[in-house]
Structures are given as C-alpha cells and as structure tokens.
Amino acid sequence: MMQHQLAVQARMRPETLERVLRVVRHRGFQICSVNMEATPGTDDINIEMTVASPRPVELLFSQLSKLVDVAHVEVQQLTSQQIRA
Q1: Closest CA to 48 of 12, 73, 28, 23
Q2: What is the pTM of this model?
Q3: DSSP code for 1
Q4: What does the pLDDT look like over 59-72, one tens digit per residue?
Q5: CA 67 to CA 49: how far, in whole Å?
Q6: Under 8 Å CB-to-CB from 11, ≥6 apart: which residues?
Q7: Where are the domains of the chain?
Q8: CATH class of the structural domain 2-6+14-79
Q9: Strand (E) positions, 1-85?
Q10: Residues near 40 by Cβ (< 8 Å), separated by ≥ 6?
C-alpha cells in the first residue's frame, strides 16, 4: 500500500471532520494519522492526515475537494514505501 500525506483547509463546523473521515473511508483509504487544529482568529480548521491505500490518491483528492466546507486540499507528500496492513 502507498502512503499519502494530505492537508485540508476547511470551515469549522461540527460535521466537517466527520464528513472528511467518511469520504476517506468510503474511498477505500485507511487513516494512519490525523491532526486537526483551529486557525487562530478565523473560522477555519487545518486537518493534516496520512492515509494508506493501493488506490490512486487522486480519487480521494477529487472527492474531498467537492465537500461543501472544504476550501483547499493539498497532497503534501507521496511516499512510495510499502507498508503492512
């Protein structure tokens, strides 16, 4: 499986993190790590996550970008390491 590191900027809403995590799961990706922080002085959050899957990360990127509260998605790093599930 390939690991991918993603950065997501979104509006802070009670359901935003839940929607992001649901899309990750529905697209067949496993979450290896996740960190969420509020941006001081704004109504935004930054979510950094590492996901793993044999599927192309573009599938996940495309679906996360379509979420209503998501402002920006960036694939920060592509890791070609093989990991054990």
Answers
A1: 73
A2: 0.83
A3: -
A4: 999 999 999 999 99
A5: 16
A6: 43, 44, 45, 69, 71
A7: 2-6+14-79
A8: alpha beta
A9: 2-11, 30-38, 44-53, 70-79
A10: none
